[in-house]
Amino acid sequence: MMKNTLLAALIIFVLGNLCRFGLPWWSLAPIALLVGWFFARSAWAAFFGGFLGGFLLWYATAWFEDSSNGGLLSAKVGQLFMGVEALQLLLVTGGLGGLIGALGALTGRWAKEMLVAPSKKRNYLQEKRR
After folding, report:
1. What's the pTM?
2. What is the distance in angstroms between the CA of the first residue and the CA of the last residue of the chain?
């Protein structure tokens, strides 16, 4: 289960980086929705994979933009929010991206559960119990 969660996070991170130049900020949600539909095995795996992928994507992007201008913009925005430090702003940005990714992936997983009938074949554990 952990392998699929990390795979989902990696796919969200890579596809989000590829799509962030020409698409709006909310394009992370449909990307996470598709990843949650195809790769998540459970709702928890979808949530955590989406959160990790969205957090890493938005945090890395914010950190790269912040370091490219020497931290000037984050210092000025931090002054607007009563002295918030640059690292705190980056973590909040990553947290927002993580929530968008998590809710998108969770929506994809729940949509698949609602729209696609489960398979009738039994897995190894169900056969072992009989």
Report:
1. 0.86
2. 24
Mention every residue, 6+ apart, whose C-beta is less than 8 A from residue 93. Answer: 58, 59, 62
Q: In 10 A of CB 79, how many CB atoms? A: 10
Calpha distance 48→44 (Å, rounded) = 6
**Tens digit of pLDDT for each residue in 45-97?**
999 999 999 999 999 999 999 999 998 989 899 999 888 999 999 999 999 99
- φ/ψ of residue 92, rounded to 5: -65, -40
Which tokens is 41 given?
């095995």
**Interatomic CA distance for residues 33 and 16, integer angstroms:** 12
Burial class (CB in 10 A: 0-12, 13-18, 19+), 20: middle
Q: How many CB atoms lie within 10 A of CB 93?
A: 19
